[in-house]
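Table S4 entry, Amidohydrolase.
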Amino acid sequence: MSETRYCEVSDLLEARAPLAEMRHHIHQHPELSYEEVDTSRYVAQKLEGWGYQVTRHVGGHGVVASLTAGTSGRTVGVRADMDALPIHEQTGLAYASVHDGKMHACGHDGHTTVLLGAAQQLAKTRNFDGTVHLIFQPAEEAGSNSGAEQMIADGLFERFPCEAIFGLHNHPGVPTGTFGFRAGPLMAACDTVKIRIHGRGGHAARPHLAIDPVMIGSSLVMALQTVVARNVDPTEAAVVTVGTFHAGFAPNVIPEEAVLELSVRSFSADVRATLEARIRALVTSHTEGYGASADIDYIRGYPVLVNTEAETAFACGVAEELVGAEHVISPFPPIAGSEDFAYYLQKVPGCFIRLGNGEGKPMLHNAKYDFNDDNLTIGAAFWTRLVERFLAKERA
């Protein structure tokens, strides 16, 4: 019996130019979270043309494309995100965004194209035994009530069962074509806190008759830095950042209110709960100590992204087969950014993967960022091989 042959990068070399054309089209026509009408239509039409059973409007503008080969009954899911960011592009590229103030500054155009490339190759070869569900997700950048949450709420895993799910994000600063894997917590939970301090306004010349929210807020900014330093185990990681501070409108007026907004990040559920409890307690006691009061709006964002051991080891092995161990980083360092793929991993086992976008390249969410087209065939070959290996015929 001959050994099964799985996809190689060389199998997709002829597809590089068509894939680049697809990616440039998506890049040139970015759509923000919840607005991915044309992008989802473009994706669905491509998939239908390749013979997939396509379901549109899953959790909003989400698209799920299913393809079955063989009879095993096994299933696997692969996800790409489609939305852009409210950033005015400054790349000067021939295919730069035609929509002012909207840009694919995080590489979702590349993630979508990579999965489309794998979709076309899988449809062409059908070298697997089971069903693959390709999940094209909207609204990853939303921060809350995201595309992943909406697709799950719309019955994603009941309608399209997945034994495991995999996703990928490019990573500037790491060599092109280098894959990164980490079992366990990879990306942080991200919560947002809005604090409104209620003081008593007055004349700047008579501060003793007022309760100054600017002074209280300034003191609170410093006090909040003790939350991590004195409440979180030094072997754990957490971040509390005060990103905005708004108060007042004139130099000779003590305002009635001051508003602070915080970004809070953590890598475990226990630390996340500790941070919320300590921030709430500190804000309340601190403001009351000055005779003021505070309203706290604590908004829980994406949870910690936790890759499962077996699926991470499996995906890492596929990458080593495809590009060689010298182009694989494992374990990859934890990332303080957050990602709504975490919601999928709360439902089914899986792995979220990083793919180097090149050294010396602009970082994510930068007006000069661009996805590296050299990754299109590498990424597409990786997804193809991963599906072939996960649904390998000899495993039936």
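Residues 189-301 form a domain with the Alpha-Beta Plaits fold (CATH 3.30.70.360).
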